Amino acid sequence: MSTSLPRPDASHSTGLPDRQVCEQARRSRDPRFDGLFFTAVHSTRIYCRPVCPAPAAKRVEYFRHAAAAEAAGYRPCLRCRPELSPDDGSWRRGDATVARALKLIDEGALAEQPLAALAQRVGVGERQLRRLFVERVGVAPGGVHGTRRLLFAKQLLTETALPITEVALAAGFGSLRRFNAAFRDAYRMAPRDLRRHPAGVSLGEGPGEGSKTLVLRLGYRPPYDFAAMLDFLRGRALPGVESVDDTSYMRVIGPLDQPGWLRVSAWPRGEHALQLELHGPAPTRLLDIVQRLRRMFDLDADPDAIAAVLCADDRLAPLVAKRPGLRLPSGWDGFEIAVRAILGQQVSVAAARTLAARLAQRFGQPLAPSFAPGLEHLFPTPEALADADLATIGLTRARADTVRAVARAMIEGRVDFRTERTLEDFAERWVALPGIGPWTAQYIALRALGHPDAFPAEDLVLQRAVPDDGSRLGAKALLARAEAWRPWRGYAVIQLWRDSMTPPPVAVARAPRLSLADRTPRVTARKRASPT
């Protein structure tokens, strides 16, 4: 990998990187650019990832999005498999109109509703939304939706032995006939012609002897500090609901009438991907599960785009240089994170974990003893906690009232985790509930939404960590200091939390500010106990 290759700057945030940059990235197969653009070869009418091992072609053009390449008549490469590319997180996340619309499309917003409904949810007109997509993505929203479904189907056909009917359902097609027609029109082959062998299915592996485990690859853009991610999750793992060891994360997933399990670990042979093992979910839930895990493990982040902003700050620059692969550790379920944030108010991580374990065991749905080792119950639903007697698990009256109030607000729709909400709107709704202050609302946004700009300024650890001279900034001063970190303040939080528990080295000079070209990825993992 060429460390001297420049990254796209802010001037390219609404379009392609410079053509020369694309050329260099393609020829050097730079994984940092994976998903940031796609290369389309004129002679073969095939489009590829920048990391494709195929020989370099002479006549190519570049596209911002896979959907734009397919709209221009190109087919996805069978060798580098564009469906494995991470999304471009530098413009796909946050509160911009296109970012929120893209997240809604990821959740299937266009599967059963027209474009007008999507436009209404993000607060713009249909024509304006279409124009924004064409300008910034290179294709209309419907093209993004269609490509997303077909590429996911292509991954399932390539990596699993799922029946083609189930592949069609998993990709969001209402019938096998519609799926076959769409696949043939886009890729000029029938779905069955793509299938090679059942490489993604293994029998008798994982929990539940004799069971089928579906295995999928979840790509990311390096560097990625998976050890640090596991470290964070391990310190907060909820006994009976999830389990984290040195190499993997495992948890039970709903719904209540068809629970399943999943395990996430590093993909073998050092590839830039995580390995997802799934057992039990219905085919129609597969795409939602994959999207949840991509958010939970922050797989679409662009580390260099984040570093470009944070490294302008003298306090953050050496932290990012030391741990360039830190990501936002999110959670599987928003309500679960919200309840655990309330339980963790003004107590240690260990105490909050103990309370959460009692709550899950007392009010969660129990599972069969043979379900999976270490997984014993689902986390309670809002309905289970709305009127629960929480004094039985040792909660104070005030905390119990807040948990019940949040559960009722979820049931009534006064608070939610809807993708189209901006950070400001989300926090405003949550602080309107009794017992929920700005810190808790921002913490929930950080851990439940994975919002890249969430910032709990009232956090005492942050207030002491930013000055790094023993002094403390107030919330107002901290917010002013963090204004320059937008739209990646959440990543600054993770860097500072992790650093706050590491004793400062003796007589070590502050690291110089690094340019993007000098940032050679280095992965480090150091265990610490961060707030809640």
From TrEMBL:
<dbReference type="Pfam" id="PF02805">
    <property type="entry name" value="Ada_Zn_binding"/>
</dbReference>
<dbReference type="InterPro" id="IPR018062">
    <property type="entry name" value="HTH_AraC-typ_CS"/>
</dbReference>
<keyword id="KW-0804">Transcription</keyword>
<keyword id="KW-0326">Glycosidase</keyword>
<feature type="domain" description="HTH araC/xylS-type">
    <location>
        <begin position="99"/>
        <end position="197"/>
    </location>
</feature>
<comment type="similarity">
    <text>Belongs to the alkylbase DNA glycosidase AlkA family.</text>
</comment>
<dbReference type="InterPro" id="IPR004026">
    <property type="entry name" value="Ada_DNA_repair_Zn-bd"/>
</dbReference>
<dbReference type="InterPro" id="IPR051912">
    <property type="entry name" value="Alkylbase_DNA_Glycosylase/TA"/>
</dbReference>
<dbReference type="InterPro" id="IPR009057">
    <property type="entry name" value="Homeodomain-like_sf"/>
</dbReference>
<keyword id="KW-0010">Activator</keyword>
<dbReference type="InterPro" id="IPR003265">
    <property type="entry name" value="HhH-GPD_domain"/>
</dbReference>
<dbReference type="InterPro" id="IPR018060">
    <property type="entry name" value="HTH_AraC"/>
</dbReference>
<dbReference type="InterPro" id="IPR000035">
    <property type="entry name" value="Alkylbase_DNA_glycsylse_CS"/>
</dbReference>
<dbReference type="Pfam" id="PF12833">
    <property type="entry name" value="HTH_18"/>
</dbReference>
<dbReference type="Pfam" id="PF00730">
    <property type="entry name" value="HhH-GPD"/>
</dbReference>
<dbReference type="InterPro" id="IPR037046">
    <property type="entry name" value="AlkA_N_sf"/>
</dbReference>
<dbReference type="Pfam" id="PF06029">
    <property type="entry name" value="AlkA_N"/>
</dbReference>
<keyword id="KW-0808">Transferase</keyword>
<keyword id="KW-0234">DNA repair</keyword>
<keyword id="KW-0227">DNA damage</keyword>
<keyword id="KW-0862">Zinc</keyword>
<keyword id="KW-0238">DNA-binding</keyword>
<keyword id="KW-0805">Transcription regulation</keyword>
<dbReference type="GO" id="GO:0003905">
    <property type="term" value="F:alkylbase DNA N-glycosylase activity"/>
</dbReference>
<keyword id="KW-0479">Metal-binding</keyword>
<protein>
    <recommendedName>
        <fullName>DNA-3-methyladenine glycosylase II</fullName>
        <ecNumber>3.2.2.21</ecNumber>
    </recommendedName>
</protein>
<dbReference type="InterPro" id="IPR011257">
    <property type="entry name" value="DNA_glycosylase"/>
</dbReference>
<dbReference type="InterPro" id="IPR035451">
    <property type="entry name" value="Ada-like_dom_sf"/>
</dbReference>
<keyword id="KW-0489">Methyltransferase</keyword>
<keyword id="KW-0378">Hydrolase</keyword>
<dbReference type="InterPro" id="IPR023170">
    <property type="entry name" value="HhH_base_excis_C"/>
</dbReference>
<feature type="region of interest" description="Disordered">
    <location>
        <begin position="1"/>
        <end position="20"/>
    </location>
</feature>
<dbReference type="InterPro" id="IPR010316">
    <property type="entry name" value="AlkA_N"/>
</dbReference>
